[in-house]
From TrEMBL:
Record-given protein name: Phosphoribosylaminoimidazole-succinocarboxamide synthase
Top-level class of the enzyme under EC nomenclature: ligase
Pathway(s) per entry: Purine metabolism; IMP biosynthesis via de novo pathway; 5-amino-1-(5-phospho-D-ribosyl)imidazole-4-carboxamide from 5-amino-1-(5-phospho-D-ribosyl)imidazole-4-carboxylate: step 1/2
GO cellular component: cytosol
EC number: 6.3.2.6
CDD domains: SAICAR_synt_PurC
Pfam family, one: SAICAR_synt
Molecular function terms from GO: ATP binding; phosphoribosylaminoimidazolesuccinocarboxamide synthase activity
Gene Ontology biological process terms, A to Z: 'de novo' IMP biosynthetic process; cobalamin biosynthetic process
The entry's keywords: ATP-binding, Ligase, Nucleotide-binding, Purine biosynthesis
Family under the similarity heading: Belongs to the SAICAR synthetase family.
UniProt source species: Tritonibacter litoralis
Length: 253
């Protein structure tokens, strides 16, 4: 489709005006970043994989009644989404200790938590997306109490869905983050899952071997990020079992 005006360019995606009012074209880039963009590289095929994986998860959530901004995938790198007002929070759901939680609390990575723990970070790259409490969120008006109740419910529903999907293919969902958008329909506001759901925003470990199949491969120099993401896509059935010799991702027809 013909490109329209660029609205925003982030670390992993570029947003363009959509073909109709209230829509946006979301373009997935091959950029890989870590440590608040201090580490950066271009990983060929990463954007394609994240596009098709995010489509897979968004469609699955829609089928169980979880609202998302996703409308349809346009091509290998672009999808059409509903325009929404992003709540300035990263919503993190943790099933096992890893990453910053292990460092903060001194818990060994891989320790199963007593129950899923939901955390919130204020979206601000300059500040390093600091961890905040519901008291901060209420005091600064980032979301109402009703919004927070709905966000918590959405986050736990996404966790239930994603945990089951990954467990069925031998992958442990350690943690993940989502973003929430507000969609307005007249005077009515609805909260939806926005941005993307992909190995960029999840920690995924092979249940048997503990092999990392997420962006920690890039963060910690553990091998090929494309191979890790391709393995996730293959297990979920959105790539063939025997990819072409070129190693580039290919969609299942």
């Amino acid at each position: 489709m013909a490109r329209r005006k660029k609205i925003y360019e982030g670390k992993a995606k570029t947003l363009y005006e959509g073909p109709e009012p209230g829509t946006i074209v979301q373009y997935f880039k091959d950029d890989a970043t870590a440590f608040n963009a201090e580490k950066h590289d271009i990983i060929e095929g990463k954007g394609v994989l994240n596009n098709i994986l995010s489509e897979f998860f968004m469609l699955g959530l829609g089928q169980i009644g979880v609202p998302t901004h996703f409308l349809k995938r346009l091509n290998m790198r672009e999808q059409l989404v509903r325009s929404c007002e992003i709540v300035p929070l990263e919503v993190i759901v943790r099933n096992y200790a890893a990453g910053s939680m292990s460092k903060r609390l001194g818990i060994d990575e891989g320790t199963q938590l007593p129950r899923p723990i939901v955390e919130y970070c204020y979206k601000d790259d300059a500040l390093g997306d600091p961890l905040v409490t519901e008291e901060h969120i209420a005091a600064f008006g980032w979301a109402s109490q009703q919004d927070m109740d709905d966000i918590l419910s959405l986050a736990l529903r996404v966790n239930d869905f994603m945990s089951g999907i990954f467990l069925a293919v031998g992958i442990r969902l350690v943690d993940f983050k989502i973003e929430i958008g507000r969609v307005y329909e007249g005077d009515f506001q609805r909260l939806v899952i926005a941005d993307e759901i992909s190995p960029d925003s999840c920690r995924l470990w092979d249940i048997k071997t503990g092999q990392k199949l997420d962006k920690d491969v890039f963060r910690r120099d553990l091998g090929s990020l494309t191979d890790a993401y391709s393995e996730v896509a293959r297990r979920l059935g959105v790539m063939p079992n025997n990819p072409p010799a070129s190693g580039k991702p290919t969609l299942v027809n």
